[in-house]
Amino acid sequence: MKRPRTQPEHGSPPEWSRKPSLPQDGSAREAESASAAGADKLAFVSRLQTILAHWPSADRLARAMGVSPSAFRKWLKGEAEPSRERLVALARVAGVSIAWLAQGEGPAPVFETVSGPRRRLPYQDPGPGVDPGQFVLLPKQHDGVGTHPAAPMFGFLALHHDWVRTAFGAEPDNLLLEIATDDAMRPTIRNGDTMLVDTADRTLRNGGVYLLQINDHRLARRVQRKHEGSLVLISDNSVYHPDVIDPGAAAHVVVIGRVVWVGGAV
Asked: Which UniProt keywords apply (predicted)?
């Protein structure tokens, strides 16, 4: 005996016409996540391009923050992403906030004007009388080198290409200018002295003075590398004892370059 077909409730389709629910497919979520990640990567590259527009070259910016130009170009192409330590170094050199650089949060930096200690003008036109084809124009770093905070400082130093090559055996585009803000290297380097750093010379040799990036601090020290991988940081000022960095921490120390010239008030 056939059972009578039940009548559907008012407003609902018959049971026989209802399509079975399909299981949730994760591919849609994966595609959405990949799309968001791609957009974030493009936005980060765009912020890098904004910073780079105020520097004479990508290589100069890369060396100023202590990374190889090839690694920096991978960031620009979206082929790789910087570590947090590299982000901190880039933000410091460029004078921008970590939040804006990493996530685009907060107001965009204004490079054309100087309105406070966190602003930086990485590069500017040398002006009349200075031929950019013969002179390299180096910006003074605000925050300085050392463990003590430095007062805001702005200025540029123009150096003739021939003098740089003759005096230091270095290429002008590889030079970086920094200001010392402690007396750990006194009498060789005094607080407030201007230092020229050859960012192409990062091979540690006994007796040389090197600019180092350790976490969020930059230090100018003599460096000895031990066989087991540890580093000994030596100050010329006898008041400071040598600092020993174990092999694990030494792997995260960035050698920005060798100090090739120091100048300051008499």
From this structure: DNA-binding, Transcription, Transcription regulation
Q: What is the pTM of this model?
A: 0.54
For the chain, the three-class secondary structure string (H helix, E strand, C coil) is: CCCCCCCCCCCCCCHHHCCCCCCCCHHHHHHHHHHHHHHHHHHHHHHHHHHHCCCCCHHHHHHHCCCCHHHHHHHHHCCCCCCHHHHHHHHHHHCCCHHHHHHCCCCCCCCCCCCCCCCCCCCCCCCCCCCCCCEEEEECCCCCECCCCCCCCCCEEEEEHHHHHHHHCCCHHHEEEEEECCCCCCCCCCCCCEEEEECCCCCCCCCCEEEEEECCEEEEEEEEECCCCCEEEECCCCCCCCEEECHHHHCCCEEEEEEEEEECCC
pLDDT tens-digit map of 161-212 = 888 888 888 888 788 888 888 899 999 999 888 899 898 888 888 778 999 9
Tell the CATH topology of 128-266: Umud Fragment, subunit A (2.10.109)
